[in-house]
Amino acid sequence: MKKLFSLICLFVTCLTIYAQENLIEDGKFEDTSFTVYDIYRKFPGPGKWYPYLTSDKQAVMSVIQDNDKGKAVSIQTLTGTSYAYSFIGQRVEKNVSEGIYTLKFWAKATKDIRTSVGVYLKVKTPKSQTLYFPISGFDPQTTPSRSGALKTLILSNEWKEYTVEFDLSQVVNSVPSPKVSKTEVIVKKSEVDHRKSFDVAIACMTKNSGMLFTDVSLVKKN
Predict the structure, then answer these.
(1) 52: which strand partners?
(2) Are residues 110 and 210 in contact, defined by beta-carbon separation less than 8 angstroms?
(3) Is residue 195 within 8 Å of 97, Cβ to Cβ?
(4) Model pLDDT for residues 93-119, shown as the tens digit of each residue
(5) Secondary structure of the chain: what % helix, strand, coil (to 5)?
(6) Cα within 13 Å of Cα(110), Cβ side
(7) How far apart are the first and last CA of the chain?
């Protein structure tokens, strides 16, 4: 009987560990290094952090050593900002199950101005299609003034942990809120292939500002 109980406990423990797998690799940037300030569109492969810039007027991005948090990504924005054309990303390519997933990271603003960060999960699709995993609880009918794909957060000037929940059981076709979108915002059930390959993206949304972030995780909610 004791042996059976031990096996059951082991099985439950294994299930818990699997459910709490962090889908992000190198969340503290210990094995990541880059400094970019010009057009940069290189993709290093899944599980690797990469900067993405489409203009030299957008940002300077680098991995630095912070006194409090160790290695962190620094984004110093210039005159142009864009969640889609200026961000730090990582491609997740795993057999991810449906459910609510929590994206966590530590961040802070580095300049004394109101600075915001935008985060989103973009599905890898053919060029003719654009899909995102929606923010948990998004409904085009009841939240018409909110973006279902892009979560924007105001940063503190001190290190703070930020949390966003995404629903990987659904996909949404548009970033703009239903109120301003030029196309109909549609939320539908996600498919297995949608969850096999997607990008986690983090962008500074305020021009002529700066931010640091580190300790990134994406874990299924129990």
Answers:
(1) 87
(2) yes
(3) yes
(4) 999 999 999 999 999 999 999 999 999
(5) 10, 40, 50
(6) 17
(7) 29
